[in-house]
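Anyone? Bumping this.
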Amino acid sequence: MRNARRSLIPLAGRLLAIAVVYYIAARLSLRLSLVGESVTPLWPPTGIALVTFLWFGARVWPAIAVAAFLVNLPDAGVGAAAGIAAGNTVAPLVSRRLLVGLGFDERLNRIRDVLTLIFAGALAAMTVSATAGSLSLMLSDAIEAREFGSTWSVWWVGDAMGILAVAPFLLTVRHIRRTGPPEWGRILEVAVLFCGLGVAAFSLHRTERPVWVIVFPLLGWAAWRFKQLGATPAALIVIVIASWAAASDGGPFGGSDLFQKMALLQVFNAAVAFTSFFFAAVVTERERAVAEQRRSIEREREIQTELYEREHKIANTLQRSLLPERLPYVPDVQTAARYIPAAGEAVVGGDWYDIIPLHDGRLALGIGDVAGHGVSAAAAMGQVRSAFRAYLLEGLSPSRTLERLNALVRELLPGAMATLVCARLDPESGTVTLARAGHPPPVILAEDGSVRLLEGGLAPPLGVVPAIGGEETEVDLPLGATIFFYTDGLVERRRESLDQGLLRLQAALTGSDDDLEDTCDRIVVSLLGDGGLADDAVLLGMRRVSLVGLPIRLTMPAQPERLSGIRRVLGRWLRQNGAQDSDISDVLVACTEACANVIQHAYPNEGLMDVNAEMTDGALTLTVRDFGSWMTPAPSEGDRGLQLMRGLMDSVDVASGPDGTRVTMRRGIGGA
Amino acid sequence: MPDTLCRVEVARVQGYAVAHLAGEVDVSNVAYIERELDAAAGRERLFIVDLSSTDYFDSAGIRLLFLLATRLKTRRQELRVVVPPQAVVRRVLEITDFVRAVPVFQSLDEATATL
């Protein structure tokens, strides 16, 4: 109960306020009356009533009803005043009902809102008040029956105009939002506009100069520049002034009879309202469409940017994952690689390289560049690289490998183009077999610092012609010499021929360092210059080094596939350190047996094995060790492997401890 | 898939089959060699394994030949091995006493002379 009472008090205050506003507006409006003291060509209170119902709901009707009754009471008498009040209350209620039912939006930003307000909210609903009011006046003998038609039409149009003049202004003015600091230009524009409108509309009071026609362009200006916030007050001002001019027989309204005067005023007011609101709605809709379009373009652009960034990231990751994490370790062949990304907003290229130890002890090397950028280039490069590995591991020669890769690229990657160098080094003899497909020539840096380009073995790039021939060239890589491979990004510069780039590369190479890593750094630094590279680039160096007099140590996963590689390296080392063929074959069997034991017994899953060889005064010491605990006892008597080790070497010692087993074997070498 | 370390070439002549092992035999490819040899032996009364062009041979290969000889014997087949006098693998066969268990000949002609 208390709650109900508490909410009743503000409601009562609100009702009183509404009634007072309605009453004052009505008293003022009656000054414009054309028929008797009750019928006016413009009845703003109806507009106020409609807005009141839209904002506060239908339940505030008593305020309107009472105020309307009181307004008409002095001139019309109790009966007629009650009838008029009923019509003046019910008509706006009907209007509200229609607007709400038709989905009316009070901001009038859409053409359909303007049309709904004019035809349903004003013209249709106001037949109710016109009928009620005219009947009341007739029944109370305020007008004669023959005056009913003209009274009805004036009433109807007056109420409709009351809605069109007042309601849009009140409804839209509520939505003014101040955004940012005042713009003096806009304020001045508003002042000029409304002064002009006032002056032009005021000329309706005069006959001489019909400057009032310029209200229409001015209304257009208001609607175009300020939308409904400009159009609604502008229309209100013009309609009020025009109605006032008609009531006082001014200008074009003078001298004609009531009906003509009314018709002229209504046509004029209707034109004003229609022009203003409709134009404002059209401008708003258009601006909204433009803004929507701009937003969707921006969204599109954002999506594009995001997609681009994502693709870039994927391509980058893909490419990095396709480059070898580390190069294979071969004691007498040093290798070093540099991947240099393009400078700035980096595009991911299709550069790749790979070094593969072959089963026969030779080393295969590939370096290539797949044309294009991004994910597709990186993916194509991945395919080329996998196939490259497969062909070489199968034992194909460099030129045959390129032939097969060309066929593969034509088949699987139509339209793709790739350049590639394939090289195979025999570490024992130093022979390098080379084949190129459209790739810039490798360079040999001799131990004395001199430089030589290797221009042979050239075929067209992969993917360009149906089949490429078996061009291949052989060069000797002496101990201490280095062969360098690279992709064109390292030497290419804008507005410069490839020959100039190659000359710069040769200049950068010339010189000597003890360490291959240092040499690579020196080359990259001198070729990078200040601006960095426009395209990404790879530099790969391979140097044969002498093992004479040096111990070797090989550490690798304990896997059967590693055994032949160990024999290769150990064999070369033995030969370089003075061992004869018969020595070598014996030592290789002993070493393999020791390693096979580690592979078979040392680890439950995976582990490392370690081979050390040292030559002192014609005596070889070979140590094979692991870091596991043996699953079965360490090599025992009767074990055929141990039998071989003992038979082939001068001495074999097996020492097992908690951190692994060590087999130490000794043998005199070279007739010692 | 063929092995990259060792190539197995099989020839069938009237009365026997011979398998030439060209390359290296170690623990990494011994299972493959075993399959190839089993297939090559077929039902011939005499099966010859020729190690003339074998560059590397160790206990894994020895074990393979011992097992093969035993298997063939149960099927009434005979295994003979050819190892030239200068072959690098000869020492391995001697140290493991393989020569006493399986007949080893110096050449293919010698191995097939007493057919």
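Late reply, but here is one note on the structure posted above: The CA atoms of residues 400 and 470 of chain A lie 6 Å apart.
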